[in-house]
Amino acid sequence: MYGIGRFLSMVTNLMTILGGLAIALMMLHITLDVASRYLLNSPIPGTISIVSYYYMVIAVFIPLAFAEQKNAHISVEVITARLPLWMQRNLERLSFLLSTIVFSLLTVRTWDEAEKKRSFGASVIQGSDAIPIWITYYVLPLGCGLMTLVVIYKLASSCLGTTSGLNTATAEADDLDANDGMGK
């Protein structure tokens, strides 16, 4: 189980690097467009569409699983922090189960939508150019699918009581607990 978590962690880290590259390319593209517009009086055609349909979609949906892996999603624990530990763990498992259901449905639905967009070759017209956008519709099921895998892994790991292989502070604490606080 630990090896699966390490592999999943590696995949989410790689995908997050792709999300970071999309942000870097977006900044470069916009900077070149602005410089070209003001210095050469000739903006780069299609910048708005490429930024909106490519860079932003990749930057938002690809790192979803990474945020879950690092326990970085927003949570408010005003009430749950006061509950007994066994109840906190069961509520966490319930949230993993509900997240699995929601993200599984999102994965299937966004895949169907991507297939529809591909079938008729969806594109946007900017100026005299047609920019194909159907390709980016596959980013959503990729991000949601990876999120689903991370949540399923966390649910299984929690139910089985095994040490998580994901790179999280929780995994390091689990490792310390498993070794009676003695470290590795």
Explain what you see:
The chain is mainly alpha-helical. About 70% of the residues lie in helices and about 5% in strands. It has six helices and two strands; from the N terminus they run H-H-H-H-E-E-H-H. The protein has a two-stranded antiparallel ribbon. The longest helix is centred in the N-terminal third of the chain and has 38 residues. The two termini are about 20 Å apart. The C terminus is likely disordered.
Strand order of the largest sheet: 1-2
Which class do the helix and strand fractions yield?
Answer: mainly alpha
Number of strands: 2
Q: What is the helix content?
A: 55-70%
**Sheet of most strands:** 2 strands, antiparallel
Q: Could you state the order of secondary-structure elements as H and E?
A: HHHHEEHH
Rg from alpha-carbon coordinates: 21 Å
Q: What is the CA–CA distance across the termini?
A: 19 Å
Are there runs of 5+ residues with pLDDT below 50, and where? 169-184
If helices are DSSP runs of H or I spanning 4 or more residues, what is the number of helices?
A: 6
Q: So what's the overall shape? A: elongated
What descriptors fit this protein?
4% strand; elongated; single chain; mainly alpha; two-stranded antiparallel ribbon; 184 residues
Entry summary:
The chain is mainly alpha-helical and 184 residues long. It is built from six helices and two strands; from the N terminus they run ααααββαα.
